[in-house]
Amino acid sequence: MDKTDLQGELEQMHAASFGWALWCCHHRTDEAQEVLQAAYLKVLEGGARFDGRASLRTWFFAVIRRTAWEQRRRLWMRELLVGRWLTGQAAVSVNGGQEQAMTSSEDSRLLRRALAALPLRQREVLHLVFYQELTIEEAAKVLNIALGTARTHFARGKARLRELLDAEGTR
After folding, report:
1. Rounded to an integer, what distance in angstroms lies between the CA atom of residue 52 and that of residue 112?
2. With contact defined as beta carbons under 8 Å apart, do 35 and 73 qualify?
C-alpha cells in the first residue's frame, strides 16, 4: 500500500481511531490527541509499517495502543525522576487520576462503574468488540494475545458485566 492510499485509509478511520486512543488514555482528551498524532507520525514517517498480516484497522489500533503505553511510561519516568530530583523522594503516580464522566445519564454511570470493576484485559476486549466493532480475532491481534485468551476474556467480561448490572437493577 503506497503512502497516499495509506493516508486516505487512515483519514477514513480517524473517528474510530480517536475513540480507541481516548480509551487507551483513560478518556483524557488532550493525551488521546497527542497519542493519535504520534501514532500517525509513526505510520506516515515509516516508524511503523503495515505488512498486511492483519487488517489495516487492527494493525493501526495496535500502533495506537503501543504509542499510548510508551507515552504513559515516558510521563511516569519523567515525573518519577523530576520528583526525586526536586524532593529527594519518589513522585506520585500519574496514572492514578480520576476518569472524566462521559455522560450525565444514570444508565451510563452505572455501565461505566460496572466496566471499571472488570479486569483491564476484559474491559479492553469488550471495548474493541462493542465500541470499535472489531471481531474477537481482531481484538486479540490489537492486544497481542492469543485468540483463545481473547475469547475467554470476552465471555468472562460479558458474564461479569451482566452480573454487575443485574445487581444494580438495570438491564
Report:
1. 35
2. no
Give the amino acid at 82.
V
Distance, CA of 65 to CA of 131 (rounded, Å): 15
pTM for this entry: 0.59
Each residue's pLDDT tens digit, 90-131: 444 444 443 333 334 677 778 888 888 999 999 999 988 888
Grid cell of 133 as nine digits: 466493532
113-118's contacts with Cβ under 8 Å and 24+ in sequence apart are: 113/164, 113/168, 114/161, 114/164, 114/165, 114/168, 115/161, 117/160, 117/164, 118/157, 118/160, 118/161
- In order of 24, 29, 104, the CA distances from 65 in angstroms are 6, 15, 27
pLDDT tens, position by position, 133-163:
889 999 999 999 999 999 999 999 999 988 9
Cβ contact 69:48 at 8 Å: no
Among residues 95, 150, 102, 99, the alpha carbon closest in space to that of 126 is found at 150
How far is Cα 156 from Cα 149, in angstroms, rounded to an integer? Answer: 11
